[in-house]
Design goal:
The complex is a heterodimer of chains A (310) and B (331).
Chain A (H helix, E strand, L loop, with lengths): L2 H14 L6 H12 L3 H29 L3 H4 L15 H4 L8 H32 L5 H13 L2 H14 L6 H26 L2 H9 L4 H30 L2 H6 L8 H5 L10 H21 L1 H11 L3
Chain B lengths: L40 H32 L2 E3 L5 E4 L3 H8 L3 H30 L6 H13 L2 H11 L6 H8 L15 H29 L3 H9 L4 H12 L1 H16 L3 H7 L10 H11 L3 H26 L6
Helix pairs in contact in B: 1-13, 2-13, 3-7, 3-10, 4-7, 5-11, 7-10, 7-11, 8-9, 10-13, 12-13
Membrane topology (chain A): Multi-pass membrane protein
GO biological process, one term (chain A): transmembrane transport
Pfam families (chain A): BPD_transp_1
């Protein structure tokens, strides 16, 4: 079903519904739909609860683990819940022999922040212009953007590794900032493109007739309207960079340069893994990005519809 | 920037006589709908300042490395990174003559197909639940996001810990409910087969949020009038779902499947954590094999050859998929 067809259906429905005969029953149905029987509501809540429990389970295990002592977490007969709550883990975990975690955290933050800024700086003008103006090669450009969306750093790692080695940028934050920005660019362009395309052109025209320049139109008229799209793009990009793994694994070889995602894997397969610290760091790394994602939850659906489900 | 009316670069669609479809979603409004006149070279020059930075990033950090990769796949590169000249297709010969290549290839297909199929089926169910009104739905919807936002490495590590013999809590739970006999548990992550199966479970789990949300977005576009009409015609809920709702989800599903195929094929962290410490090649996919060539064997040339193979596989999958399913993406 293409968008046009869907829309045609919608407009057919819109035309039909004001018609007299089926309006009455439809309204009645809707009324009863609101008055769902209590039993069914409880059933839905139960189903919702099951979904909630499944999705939160790994992170509950993580959290409980993060406050156990090493003896507790490696006990041969483990307890599901912590018997004592050792909050001091959240302080002690930053100095472990496996990897310099404070530096890993700084690394994650620096790479994510600068990659996100770069994406915004580069994607916003492109999204605006391709949504608003026609020029030769516009389709080629948008095709390139889609192609990048199909590609991921993982499949190009060997090429990236050689290229940045030649440039002398191997094992630097700069390399990962460029890589993260490049591979998240398409998503940002796409989402913001859709938001720009959604603003009626009449708005721009009216402003231009009133004598506003193109940049004025962009910053004063369009940006406030596409702000939700920009926030969505920022959050998506930031979270993706925050969690990036494959390229960082190969590009960043010095322990202190690596982001948390790579650094934490060093705990796996150790003779005596300090799982409580792994989980403490994981909780610290996960909570902020989960909150960010939840902030755009309402737009997540809309953003996705705009971005890909066309 | 000129503010005057330059006809050759008028705002796209400005002259459009078509009525704007109202309310049906702004997403699909063809940008540049019906601009007057053909855009010319001057328009490209005008566009460059706006798109050049993006273009530079795509060319420099995506397409150029891809070229480097293709080139390197025909070179002999020493462990220290010195290019020793062309070797033709020797690297490809090494890739294909590796005794574990075809098992790895088949395992990659199983990995992608099983994960994507189960992800979509389970997501359809979850989306159906989250699309109904009930108290607390908002909280459930928010919680469903967590595996999406959380690092896949970290999600995988908690499962890895949970499956550890003796002290893992998932293991203990399986012992407690009687699914495992031995109290010390089972070496889930020591055995390639079981580690791979658990990796599939994790991959499905972390793919659910995106898929569920995409389907929810699709469900939001299903006109409620149509569903009501089907109900009034006496269709059962199941029949309504399969004949009215599911066809409307076609667009959402095809995009979700496509993006999931690419993501799952390219997925590294889950298998890296779950099976990375198992010796041998009995739990590898093409993607983990590429990283074994780079990191363990320091053969960037052979890794490049395998990457090219992976790259072509992705292209073929996407092309076949787009040809067969015709996702409704319009530029």
């Amino acid at each position: 079903m293409t968008v046009t067809e869907t829309r045609a259906m919608l407009s057919v429905d819109a035309e039909r519904s004001p018609g007299g005969r089926d309006r009455g029953p439809a309204r009645k149905r809707r009324y009863t739909e609101d008055q769902v029987p209590l039993g069914r509501v409880l059933l839905r809540m139960l189903a919702g609860l099951v979904v909630l429990a499944i999705f939160i389970l790994p992170y509950t295990i993580m959290f409980f683990g993060s406050v156990k002592t090493k003896a507790q977490i490696r006990s041969v007969d483990p307890t599901y819940f912590p018997t004592e709550w050792h909050w001091e883990n959240y302080i002690n975990m930053w100095s472990t022999p496996e990897t310099p975690l404070p530096q890993n955290l700084i690394s994650t933050i620096v790479i994510s922040v600068f990659a996100t800024l770069l994406v915004l700086l580069v994607a916003l003008p492109a999204a605006y212009y391709t949504a608003r103006f026609r020029f030769p090669g516009r389709m080629v450009f948008l095709f390139l953007v889609i192609v990048t969306q199909m590609l991921q750093p993982a499949v190009l790692t060997s090429g990236l590794f050689r290229q940045f080695a030649t440039l002398g940028l191997i094992d630097t934050w700069a390399a990962m900032i460029f890589i993260n920005a490049a591979f998240n660019l398409s998503f940002a362009v796409w989402i913001m493109h859709s938001f720009f395309a959604g603003i009626p052109k009449e708005v721009d025209e009216a402003a231009q007739i009133d004598g506003a320049g193109r940049l004025t139109v962009l910053f004063r008229i369009n940006l406030p309207l596409v702000w939700p799209g920009i926030v969505t793009a920022i959050v998506f990009t930031f979270v993706a960079c925050w969690n990036e793994f494959a390229a960082s694994l190969v590009i960043l070889s010095t322990a202190g340069n690596q982001p948390l995602s790579v650094a934490l894997t060093k705990f796996v397969g150790q003779y005596e893994t300090s799982w409580q610290y792994v989980f403490g760091v994981s909780i610290v790394a996960i909570v902020p990005v989960v909150i960010l994602f939840m902030l755009i939850e309402k737009r997540l659906v809309g953003g996705l519809t705009a971005g890909s489900v066309k | 920037m000129s503010s005057t009316t330059d006809t050759s670069s008028n705002p796209a669609g400005a002259a459009s006589g078509r009525p704007r479809p109202g309310g049906a979603g702004r997403a699909g409004n063809a940008p540049g709908g019906a601009a007057r006149g053909k855009p010319g070279g001057r328009d490209l020059v005008k566009a460059l300042p706006w798109i050049a930075p993006a273009l530079a990033l795509i060319l420099g950090v995506v397409l150029f490395p891809a070229g480097v990769m293709f080139f390197n796949s025909t070179r002999d590169i020493s462990q220290s990174g010195v290019d020793k000249g062309s070797v033709g297709f020797d690297n490809y010969v090494e890739v294909f003559s590796f005794p574990y290549f075809w098992p790895i290839f088949l395992r990659t297909i199983v990995w992608v197909v099983v994960v994507v199929v189960f992800t979509v089926l389970i997501s359809l169910g979850i989306a159906q639940i989250l699309n109904k009104a009930f108290p607390g739905r908002r909280i459930v919807r928010l919680v469903v996001i967590i595996p999406w936002a959380a690092s896949v490495v970290m999600t995988t590590m908690v499962v890895y810990y949970g499956l550890e013999p003796y002290f893992g809590v998932i293991n203990k739970f399986l012992v407690d409910v009687g699914l495992i006999d031995t109290p010390e548990g089972y070496g889930w992550t020591r055995n390639p087969m079981t580690a791979f199966i658990w990796s599939i479970v994790i991959a499905i789990f972390v793919s659910l949020p995106f898929t569920t949300y995409t389907i929810l977005a699709g469900l939001a576009t299903v006109p409620s009038d149509t569903i009501e009409a089907a109900k009034m015609d006496g269709a059962s809920p199941a029949r309504t779902y399969f004949t009215v709702v599911l066809p409307q989800l076609r667009g959402a599903l095809s995009v979700a499947v496509l993006i999931n195929i690419i993501n799952v094929f390219n997925s590294l962290p889950i298998l890296k954590v779950m099976t990375g410490s198992i010796p041998g090649y009995d739990a590898d996919t093409i993607m983990t094999m590429i990283f074994k060539y780079i990191q363990n064997q320091h053969k960037v040339d052979v890794a490049s050859a395998l990457s090219v193979v992976a790259f072509l596989i992705v292209i073929v999958i996407v092309a076949v998929y787009v040809k067969v399913v015709k996702p409704t993406r319009e530029v």
